[in-house]
User: Fold these one by one.
Assistant:
Number 1:
Amino acid sequence: MEAHADTSTLRRRRPLPAWLLGLVPLVLAVGLLGAFAVLGGPGLGDRPGPPVEELSVERTVLQPDSIKLTVRNDGPDTVTLAQAFVNDAYVSFDVAERDIDRLRAQTVHIAYPWIEGEAYEVGLLTSTGATFTHEIAAAVETPDADLGFFGLMALLGVYVGVIPVALGMLWLPFVRRIDATWIRVLLAATVGLLAFLAIDATLEGLEIAGQGAQALGGAGLVFLGALLAYLALAAVSARVEARRSRDEAAGASPQRLAALVATGIGLHNLGEGLAIGSAYATGALALGTFLVVGFAIHNTTEGLAIVAPLGRAGVRVSVGRLALLGLLAGGPAVVGAWIGSAAFTPSLAAFLLGAGVGAIAQVIVQIAPGLRDRAGRILDAAVAGGIAAGIVAMYATGLLVSG
C-alpha cells in the first residue's frame, strides 16, 4: 500500500511542461491589457481633439500629362484625401482609396500637363484641412522600368561597383612585397576607410529616414539595420572561430578577413546602388551620371582594403577567389541599382544603409587584432597614420560625389 501511495504522489508532483510555464506570463499580460481596454483606459477609443495627420511622399513618377505620388500615412489616425493642387491650382486626382489607414500607402494619380524642366509644388489637402506638399525641382519623364532599363542599371552597377573594386585589387602584388610594418599601416588604412564609409552611410541613412521613413520607425530603422547586421555577422564569425583549431583561435585568417571586408564594402555599395537607381528612375539623369562617375573613382580604393589582409607572408590566393571577393564587394551595387529603380522606399533605403554600417563595424572589430605591434599595442604612430590616411583618401574621393 505504501509503495502504491508513493507512486501516486510522484505522479501528482510531476512538473509542468516548460512551454506551459513560459506561456503563463504572456497570458497574464494579455489579460492585463484586456482589462485596461475594458475599463476604458486613457488613450484608447475616440481621441479627444482634432486627429493627428501625417503624410510622407515615398515615390514620384512623372508620365505624359500625369503625376503619380506614392504617399504613406505616418500618423496615428486615418487620413482622408480631399483635394490635390499643383502650383496653387486645384486639379483632379484619382486614388484607389481616399481613406489611408495608419502605415498604409496609396498611389495618387494627378492629371496635369507638366512641362519638362519646370519646377512644381504638388500638394494634397485632407478632409480636416491639413495640407501636405511635395516639391519637384525639375520635371523629367520617369523612364519605363522595362528589360532594357534594368539592363542599363546592371551595367551601371558593374561600372560603379565591380570594375573599380577589381582595379583596386591589382595592388595585391605590391602588398605582398612590403614588410610587416607596412602591412599594419595598410590594415590601419583599411580601418580608416571603413570608418569613413560607416559614418557616411549613417548620415545618409538618417537623412533619408528623416525625409520619408517616419512611418516605419524613421531613424530607428538605421540603427535596427546596423544592430541586426552586426549581430548576424558576429554570430557567423563566432561559429567559424569555434571550428578552428586552438592554435589559430587568436585571430581571424587573412582569407576570412578579406571576405569580411568585402562583405562590409558590398553592403555599403548596395546603398550607393540605391542612390544611382533612384536617381535614374525619377528622371534625375544628370545627378545619376554624376553619382556614377564619382562612385566609380571613389570605390577604387576599396579594392586595396580587400587585399590588405592578404598581404601577410605565405598567403596565396587564386584568381578565382579574388574574383569572388570582387563580386562580393561590387556586385551589391547592381542589386542596389535594381532596387532603387524599381522598388525604392525611404524605409528600405534607411534599413539597408544601417545594415551596411553594422557590417562595417563588425569588420573593424575583426581587423583590430591585426593592428597590434610586437609590444601588443594597437594605436601606435604607424597605425594612427594609416587610419588617418584611409579617412583622408575616402574624404578626397568622396568630394567627387558630394561636391
Number 2:
Amino acid sequence: MNREKYSRQILFPPIGAEGQEKLLASRAVILGCGALGTAQANALTRAGVGTLRIVDRDFVEESNLQRQILFDEADARERLPKAIAAARKLNQINSEVKVEGVVEDVDNRNIEKLVSGFQVVLDATDNFEARYLLNEAAVKHRLPWVYGAVVASYGMSMTILPESTACLACLFPAAPEGAHETCDTAGVISPAVSWVAAIQVTEALKILLGRRHELHGAMLAYDIWKNQLQEIRPPKDPQCRVCGAREFAYLNRTGPTHTSLCGRDSVQIHAAVPRQLDLADLRARLEPFGRVRANEFLLVFAVDAYELTVFSDGRAIVKGTPDPAVARSVYAKYIGA
C-alpha cells in the first residue's frame, strides 16, 4: 500500500491503516456512468477501493460535460462509451485500483452476472425499471446496494441491506404513474449531484469497512437550492412482493426490445437475438447509404433524418424519432431484424 497516497484518509479514525487495507481488497460496482456514476467512481477510486466495475450503455455527448465530471470535450468528439472514457481517466488517477469499464445495457439477462462477486452496488441508473431490477437482484443474492436519484436541485438516497432494512419495493411498491420530471426535462445542477453521490459513497465505504452500525438508516431527500431536508425511516414491509414474498417479476419477465430515451428524441433498440457485430464490416456495408464514423467501440451512421449509434453487441440508439415502431423499422432496414 502507498501510505502517502492515502495518508489523510488513514488519519481518519473510522478508517485507519487497517481499514485502508480492507478498502484495497474490496470490490464495488456502479450501475450507470452519468452524473452520479462519474462522481461515485471518482470518489471510490481516489479512496482506494481495490476493484471497481462501471457499467453503462451510453456514449459521451457535449451536454454531459456540465455535470459528468470524468469526461472532457475530446471524449464527446470521439463519442467514447462512458464506461470506457471513465475507466481511462480513473486508471490515470489511481493505478492501485483495478477499474473495469463495461459497455452494456443493464437488463434481466445480464444484471446477476454484472453484480456477482461484488460487495456493494451503487445505483447511478436513470429510470425506475432499472432500479427495480437492481433491487430484485440484490434481494435475491443478499447484496447491499445504495439507491440514488437526482433531478433539478433535488436528490434522494437510501441504503438497502437485504434481510435487514426495507427494500425499494417496500417504499415504492409501484413505479410513479404518468409523466414525471427528468434531467432532460427539468434540468439538473451539479451541486445536487455531488450531494447525492457523497451520501452514496460514504454509505458504500461504511459497508466495505464492516461498519454497518454507522449507516444512516433512512431515505434522505434534500433540495440543495431551497435548503429543504427530509428524512424518512421506512419500515420493512412483511407483505412486500420482493423482500417478503420473494417474487422477482422484473428479473423473470421477458423485457421489451426497445426503450424510449426521455427528452432525447431517441429510442434504444436491442437485437431480438443477442449477437456480436463486426463493426468494420458493418461500416463498409453502410458507407454507400450515408455518413459513417466509428471507433473501436461503436459506429455512428447518419441517414435521412436519423442517426444510428450502433454497439458491437447489436444494440443501437436511434436518434431522430421518439416512436419505437419507426426506430425499429430504421434498425431493421440497415442493421437487420
Number 3:
Amino acid sequence: MSEAVHPETGLLADAADGPVAGGMQGPAVAEAVAAAFTAAIESGRLDLPLPGRGHTRERWAVLAELAGEDLCVARLAEGHADALAILSELGAAVPPDGSRWAVWAAQPAGPRLTARQDRGGWRLDGIKQYCSGARSCTDALVTAKAPDGDRLFAVSTRHLWPIPGTWRAVGMAASDTLDVSFDSIEAEPVAGPGSYTARPGFAHGGVGVAACWYGGARAVGGTLREAAASRDVGPYALADLGAVDLALHTARTALDVAAAEIDADPADRQDGGRLRALRVRALVEAVATEVMRRVGQALGAGPLCRDGAHSRRVADLTVCLRQHHAERDLAQLGTLVASHGAAW
C-alpha cells in the first residue's frame, strides 16, 4: 500500500493500491485478507524455496514484501510457508495443491490441547489458543500434550469449532486468530514426540517471523519517507528519517547474514541456530519498535488519525511484535552467551 499527501492539510490519506484497502473496517478487512491469502497461494506467490536450500534470503524477501503490503496477510502466508517447510523437514507427505495450512503451536497459560490414542488412531481434545487462520485455512499443524510428551499433529479444519469473540484486539484483527475447540478430532502424528522443536528448522522458522516484522516496520517507515519527499517536514523529522534508515538497514543486513548462515549450515551442525534466531529476532523487534516511535515522533497524530492504512499497520505491528518475548528471550540469549561464548 502507498499513501498520498493531502494537498491542503499535508496529512497522509488512504490510497488502497495494495491487496487490502486501508479504509476498510471490520469484517470487510478480514474477508479481504482471507481472499488475498488464498490468491497468494493460487497464484504461486507462496511457492517459496525451503529454508536452507540456498535461497533463504529470497524466501524471507517475499514474506517481508507481503508484510509491507499487509501484516495480517503475511501472518497467514508465513504460517502456510512454515507448515510446508515443517512437513518437508519431518518427512511427511506433500500437501495437495490448493490447501491452505496454518501452524498452531502457541502454548500460553490457560486451556490446553491434549492428544490420546484409541483403536481408530489419534484424537485431540480441548482448546487451542491463538489459531491464526482459524476460518481461512483448510489444514493445520497443531501441538498437543500426549502421554509420551509434546507432539505435532496434522488436522483438517473441517470439523473444528473456532470460538467467536476470543480475539478482542484491534491489531491483527483481520488475521482470523481465534481460540479453537477440539472435540475428539482425528489427527495424524507428524514424526515423534519433541520432533517439532528439536529440528533445525525450528530456529530457522523463528527468523522467518522476524522477516515479517521487518517488512511491517519498513512499511511504517515508508510513511515518513514519503512525507519527507513531498513536503518540508523540518530538520527534526529528517533526523528521525535518518534514524529510521539506519535501523532498517541494520535489520535487513542482519536478516541477509542470517539467511547466508542458514544456507551454509541448514542442518545446524555448528549448533548456532538458536543463538542466531534469538539475536535476529531481538534486533528486528527493537528496530521495529524504534521505527514506530520515530515515525510517530516525526509526524505526530496526523497519520494515526487520518490515514487508515498507516494506523492499522501500526496497530498490527504492535501486536505482531509480541511474538517476541522481550526479557525472557533476552535471558535465553544471555544464557547461551554465558555458556558457549560469543564471537564479538
Number 4:
Amino acid sequence: MSSAPDGPIVALVPAYERADSVAATVAALRALASVDEVVVVDDGSRDATADVARDAGARVVQLRANVGKGGAVAAGIAATPSAGVYLLLDADIGATATAARSLLGPVLAGEADMTIAVLPSAGRRGGFGLVRNLSRWGIRRACGFVAAAPLSGQRAVRADLLRSLEPAARFGLEVGLTIDAVRQGARVLEVPVALDHRHTGRRLSGFAHRGRQGTDIVRALWPRLIPAHPART
C-alpha cells in the first residue's frame, strides 16, 4: 500500500449517549476542508445523541441496540462503501477534533496506511495506566510494534486496509486494529496531536469503565497471542 488512496474521506464517529458533546465534535469535523462526510454511528443510545448529531450536520447510522465500539465501527464501515480514507474519532473530543487534520496528512500522501494520535498526558485526570500497560505489552508481544498510545481511538486509516480487518469487539477495537494491521504489513505511524476528550478519572465510575475496557482488551488479545494449533489426527 504505497500509493495515495482514492475515494472520499469519511469521519466516522461511534457514539453512545454523547448528546452533550457530539454536536461540537461534528461541527469541528465539518469545518475540516479535507473531510467529505461526517458519519455518526449511534450505538443504541437512550438519550438524544442521534438527533443532536443529525441537527449538527452528520449522517447518522442508528443502531437499535448497543453493540459496543467495535460493532459500531463495523456498522459505519458497512454504511460507507465508497470511502477512501476513514478518520476514526471519539464523540467526546468536541472542538479539538479540528486537530485531527494532522492524522490525515501521512495517509493522504501515501506515507502511512494508519496513523494513530498520541494525545497529551492526562495526568491525574486519567487512571493509573494498568490497562494501557497491558495493551502496550500485548501489542508488542503479538506483532512487535511498540505503541506509545495503544488505546488511542483517534486514527486515520486507508479504507481498503480497514475493510480487510475484522474489528475486535467493544473496547478491544484499537488493540485489535493495531495488531492486525501490523501483521498484515501495514505502515503504522503514531503522530502527536493536541486532542482532548472526557477523562473518567480516579473515581469509582472511572475504575468500573477501565475494568470493562480491560476485559474487552484481554478478549481481543487472547486469540492474537495464542497460536492456533492444527487438530491432531
